[in-house]
Amino acid sequence: MSAAPLTATSTADRLQAALADAHAAVDRLLSATDGEQPDGRQGVGAGGSMRQQLTEVERLARRVDAVRLRVLARAERERLVDRTGHTDTGSWAADATNGDRRPAARDVMLATALDAPGEALVDLTGDGGQSSDAGGPGTSSGTGSGTETSSGTEDRPASGAEPSLAGDRAGEAPGRRRMQATRAALSAGDISTEHARVIARALDDLPDRVGELGRRRCEQRLLSLAARLSPSRLRSAGRRILAEVEPDPQVADAHEDALVSRDEDRAHERAELWIKDNHDGTMTGHFTVPRASGMVLRKVIDAMTAPRRHDGRDGDGPVPAAARGAGTGFGGERIGADRKAAGLDWQHRRGLALADLLLRLPTDHLHAKVAATLLVTTRLEDLQGELTKVGGTDMAEPVGAGTVRRMACGAGIVPAVLDGESVPLDLGRQRRLFSDAQRVALASRYTECAAEGCDRPFAWTEIHHLRAWQSGGPTDLDNAVPLCGRHHRMIDGPDWQHSLRRGTDGTTTIRFHRRT
């Protein structure tokens, strides 16, 4: 009788064997993406949609992330650092991977949240409360297919039981994972680690009175949203998730405002600025400021550098060849068509804009009022202090009700007060260009370009007539959509056709199709 084949029996051996198989599979993937294929077809574009291929690669990477988090969770659970001498598991992980401690610590915190029973989490930002947000509008990594599976895209628990706000957790099964659905969704590759981090933070921020069924319902709703939202957008939805189980909208409003205000208070505590002289004609600095202050600065810089905003044209019609794709920053200098010749990359443009801004303070005459002003949308009762609901901005980030009231007392703030005194917003054929008041009104509907999938912020957009002015279209809100410079050129150009989709919230989404 021949000897039985050797088998990997321990968890470590099984994992090592699986890793070897995975590396071999990745080797095959790398080979498949290299150059000329044996049948003569070219690379990754052959035989299928490149978008779908990228989606599947991303899903694979997310599943590998789930494995990595499970390894970290086990290291934390078994207190591996007691045997290695490291101060914590984050430091051990950073040492093992030649990485930085802060992101490693954040990963350990997430791994623990996904692995542990329902005890409260201390700090999901992972290192002294430092935020993980990346600057710039809307970076998306969602690849959700919308398929409702056990990985957590259903809106309600599988049991069909109606969630309750009851806070009695005494009957919860010992060892139950509070975030089983999120763990399963990450393991399936339906969400990213950043999505999971946002969901964990949102659930941890729920009031203690929300019971386990209510938390599961909130978790399922967030997973459903994660299938189509980027982590930054999901973060905004997470602040509002209490409304999923709270019937009183004012209670949900107050909870959201408390979360935003808490972040604002923490931001004030972390505000700092340093500047050093490089002794070569330049100075280098770094600053950390509260979001509201940063949004005002970014709004001014965007107004100085965003393509085509310099010429004041918000209407339609042909664009001069010299101005296509161009923007103006400091001192009216034309940047765009000759940008490459001038050697000005994007960061350099913004740096020059900041330098010009500092030389020209105060900023009240830099640009047209609305172009360089932060637009804040609030309700009259919130502005008067009767209620607490966060204010919206045209930079896609909310501000707390208290901050809105303080900002409304200062210069450079235009509060778009809902239910307040009305101004003419439909101008018909009286004028061709949209007014500042109309732009303020549109900012309460849109946070970014109306083109499908475009994340250019509203502050960068131009207002487009859906029915062209020269064809009899009125200068009315129902005939207005915000478009970034690129999509404004596309909608006026000969190479693209488009279709419109009207939303129940009064917005219009434009989908472009290349003409064939």
From TrEMBL:
Domain HNH nuclease: 437-489
Segments of this protein annotated with the region Disordered: 31-51, 121-188
Bias (Gly residues) ranges: 135-145
GO molecular function ontology, one term from the record: zinc ion binding
InterPro entries, A to Z: DUF222 (IPR003870), HNH (IPR002711), HNH_nuc (IPR003615)
Tree of life domain: Bacteria
Family the entry assigns: Belongs to the Rv1128c/1148c/1588c/1702c/1945/3466 family.
Protein name per the record: HNH nuclease domain-containing protein
UniProt organism field: Janibacter alkaliphilus
